[in-house]
Write a structure and sequence with these properties.
By secondary structure, the protein is α+β, with helices and mostly antiparallel strands. It has one domain. The protein is 14% helix and 26% strand. It is built from 7 helices and 15 strands. The strands form 3 sheets. Strands 1, 2, 4, 5, 6, 7, 9, 11, 13 and 14 form a 10-stranded mixed sheet that branches. A 3-stranded antiparallel sheet has the order 3-10-8, with no helix packed on it. It is globular and about 45 Å long. 45% of the residues are buried.
Length: 262
């Protein structure tokens, strides 16, 4: 509670507490002056893949999943630019801080709502035949970055989510780690799409994801240097999976990425 901006007695209901704001210094930006560094958009459990097709082999098992279905009628013109790019999935559980943040510096495009269902986003559902990301209600928000090209943020609602609120406006210049919006009560997920060749996720996080392991990360806390990998992350070994469950490893930093040398 020491991180929460308002005293607890000022919350009128549980939902207000659920999407609570934190104090300005609670989630400082990693490398705020280096636009090459990409930071995690949320306190979450993450899996990351440098290619969409790898994500489909390892994690997203929905038979009908595709970038075309994910973007729906919001940004169909951008499908081709992301089909062979990188994909990160950042899953928020009900106990998490439910505001989400901007991963890169850039200019915000128009947020567009796609109506849909409210299926759970837990790993068992994602690894089933159901196309959760292509079926659930979601808000698609592009960010145009000088360094990373167009980055697509898809804010996916899930079971018991009241609504998704975007707190920034189209055309605004935005900086990484600034607030982008919040989810009202329930589980939810942020999916980030990057164009091919614009960036690489860190190897340790990619390796976890290849093993179908989520990594517990925080928003905007730490990141890697663009030319090196983090070396002091402490991890707990994860047990073998049984009965359809997936273990979650714990990291001392947020999921982040570095740019690909060109």
């Amino acid at each position: 509670m020491s991180e929460v901006l308002k005293p607890v007695e000022e919350f009128q209901n549980f939902n207000e507490f659920f999407y609570r704001q934190l104090k300005p210094d609670a989630r400082p930006a990693s490398a705020p002056d280096d636009p090459h560094i990409i930071v995690s958009p949320a306190d979450c459990r993450s899996v990351v893949f440098n290619r969409v097709d790898t994500a489909q082999k390892v994690w997203i098992k929905g038979r009908e999943f595709s970038i075309r279905r994910l973007l729906g009628d919001a940004y169909p013109e951008d499908v081709k630019r992301f089909e062979t790019g990188a994909l990160g999935i950042f899953r928020l559980a009900p106990q998490d801080y439910h505001r989400f943040h901007i991963p890169v510096d850039g200019v915000l495009g128009k947020p567009k709502l796609i109506s849909g269902e409210y299926y759970t986003v837990n790993p068992m559902a994602i690894r089933s035949a159901l196309d959760v990301y292509g079926e659930n209600v979601r808000v698609v928000v592009p960010i145009d970055s000088e360094v990373h090209g167009r980055v697509m943020c898809i804010c996916v609602g899930a079971m018991m989510v009241g609504s998704t609120v975007i707190t920034r406006r189209e055309g605004e210049k935005v900086k990484k780690a600034e607030e982008l919006g919040y989810f009202k009560f329930g589980g939810s997920t942020i999916v980030l799409l990057f164009e091919e060749g614009k960036m690489l996720f860190d190897d340790d996080l990619v390796e976890n994801s290849k093993g179908a392991l989520e990594t517990l990360v925080g928003a905007n806390v730490r990141s890697t240097d663009k030319d090196s990998h983090f070396t002091d992350t402490k991890r707990r070994s994860a047990p073998a999976c049984r009965s359809g469950t997936r273990p979650t490893t714990r990291s001392t930093r947020p999921t982040c990425a570095r740019t690909r040398a060109t």
